[in-house]
Structures are given as C-alpha cells and as structure tokens.
Amino acid sequence: MRSIRATMFVTLDGVVQGLGRPDEDTRGGFAHGGWGPQYNDEVMGRELGKGMANPGDMLFGRRTWQDFTAAWGRATDGNPFTAHMNAATKYVVSRTLPDTDAWQNSILLRGDAADTVAELKVQPGNDLSINGSASLVRNLHAAGLIDHYTLLIHPLTLGGGARLFDGPAPLTEFELTGSVTTGKGVIIAHYTRR
Description:
Blueprint lengths: L3 E8 L30 H12 L3 E5 H11 L7 H8 L2 E4 L12 E4 L3 H10 L5 E4 L2 H9 L5 E7 L19 E8 L5 E7 L1
Parallel strand pairs: 1-5, 1-6, 2-3, 2-5, 3-4
Antiparallel strand pairs: 6-8, 7-8
C-alpha cells in the first residue's frame, strides 16, 4: 500500500494560504500573500531536497495543480525541483477540470477526493506526496488517509486566511519523527500517524 505525505508551509496561527506571492490566492480578501519566501534558506532547501530524493508520485487539488502548472510546468531553469516535478506522475483530484493536458505526466482523478485517493492508495506504485492543496489535505485527513506530515512552521502570525485545519478535524495522534530548525527560525517538523 502506498503512503501519503503532506508537506505544508504554515504560520504560527495555522495559515497556509498564499505562501509564495501576493497574487497566489486572494480568496476571501486575503491580503498577506507572499509571506513565505523571505524565510527560505539553505537548510530549508536541503530538507525539502531530501523529500524529493526518493522516487514518488505527486497528488494535487485542482487549484494548486493549476498554479504549479503555470510556475513549474513550463520552467526549464535547471532547478532540481523543476526537474523532479516535471518528471513525476501527478495525480489531480478534481470534479471540474476537463483534462490535465497542460502539464506532462498528469492524470485526472474524478469524483469524491477521499474515495478516489483511497482507491489509488491501495494500488501498487510509488508513495504519494502532497505539497499545498490545503482543501485536499483536510479532506484526506478527515478520511484517515494521510500517513505523514512535514510541517514548515514559520515564525509569524497573519491573523487571517485559510488555515490548515479550518473547522473540526478528527482526533488523530502523531509521533514526531524528526525536526530541524532553519537559520531563519522555521521549524521543519516530521510527523507520522500513530
């Protein structure tokens, strides 16, 4: 059975919205987009690189896949993250996308997210990783499908925005399996479901 790892960039007050740039996700009038890049450093790059060193497939919600397609799908910059993402099989969970032709190696999963991902999880294949896609993560967490979390906890609060767990999340216990603190104060914590 495949395992699923969710990697989420999060503020101290739990916000996961609009990490990369001001226009990334302005839903709900969110005006703090682009809060994350100022905290990037070599330690973070090295830790994220470890996750990409293992073969694996990626799992996306529609919005994140569309954003990543624009940012990474056309890039030819020699960045190892670009090469990894373009080569990986990308499963996209969506009820509204007509197709996933815009980014190579993308496969559309139609229907209820928890049902389609549960079916995918039991099929033979590489482990699955989710980067972002907070709505998908919440849905899969509620269904008990996420095995591991890597949380990059940033030293700031935003006071508003979509949070990792908006609303109730089921009681779930995790074990801390490792942690690293970057030079800019980001705590990278690895958790495994008990």
